[in-house]
User: Which sequence fits this backbone?
């Protein structure tokens, strides 16, 4: 349920928001209960399938950048770079999408058999949000698709938190996920500030970044006044973006019964 702090501020914003917060809290509690029931019903075959999905999700994190930095899709790969940039085209893109989607289908095959309608609906929604964000409207799409990417990326982050609760993952992994997210967000803010501080080319660089071009490849990113500092900030963003998703994948089986 929403915390007293959240409810107190919701009350100050008016009854509609308070009702929405209570409804969201009730829905989350129902999903947590669904997750408990789901895990209790798993058999050995179900657990093997979920572990296969986990392996495939790990593969989607490591195989695409390996291909990207092996120069399969780009003769001059950018380092450091975000996940979105490394999987934007060619073999890294299709390798990521294939592994990621296959993992989801394997996972959903278990959810469809052992989960109730609430869990099935949430998992389907999370997959649809991920497809929209990563495949249909990837970073760098520009225009309306770029805005859709931004909104669905935020929704997908929230979905991960809810899935943590559904799978009964402990607070250490949840803290690692959100700590990485906050560090990544802080790095993004710092990169933007560095780009804006670049003499003469700040406006042009911000426009390029809005279209998905990495900060290091923007006119400001090449400016000697900020190039070195920007490189280290982008390195931190690369690290924290990856640790965020790895924290989720590595911990997702934490509460699955060992005897299954």
Assistant:
């Amino acid at each position: 349920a929403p915390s007293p702090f959240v409810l107190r501020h919701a009350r100050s914003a008016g009854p509609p928001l308070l009702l929405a917060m209570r409804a969201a809290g009730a829905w989350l509690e129902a999903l947590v209960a669904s997750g408990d029931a789901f895990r209790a019903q798993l058999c050995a075959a179900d657990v093997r399938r979920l572990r296969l999905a986990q392996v495939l999700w790990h593969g989607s994190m490591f195989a695409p950048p390996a291909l990207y930095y092996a120069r399969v899709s780009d003769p001059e790969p950018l380092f450091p770079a975000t996940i979105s940039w490394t999987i934007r085209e060619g073999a890294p893109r299709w390798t990521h999408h294939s592994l990621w989607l296959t993992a989801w289908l394997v996972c959903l095959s278990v959810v469809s058999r052992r989960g109730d309608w609430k869990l099935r609906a949430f998992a389907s929604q999370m997959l649809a949000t991920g497809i929209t964000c990563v495949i249909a409207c990837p970073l760098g799409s520009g225009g309306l698709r770029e805005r859709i990417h931004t909104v669905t990326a935020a929704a997908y982050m929230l979905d991960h938190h809810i899935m943590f609760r559904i799978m009964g993952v402990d607070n250490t992994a949840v803290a690692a996920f959100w700590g990485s997210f906050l560090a990544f967000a802080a790095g993004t803010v710092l990169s933007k500030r560095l780009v804006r501080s670049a003499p003469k080319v700040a406006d042009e660089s911000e426009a390029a970044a809005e279209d998905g071009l990495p900060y290091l490849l923007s006119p400001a990113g090449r400016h000697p006044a900020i190039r070195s500092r920007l490189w280290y900030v982008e390195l931190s963003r690369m690290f924290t973006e990856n640790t965020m998703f790895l924290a989720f994948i590595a911990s997702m089986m934490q509460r699955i019964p060992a005897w299954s």
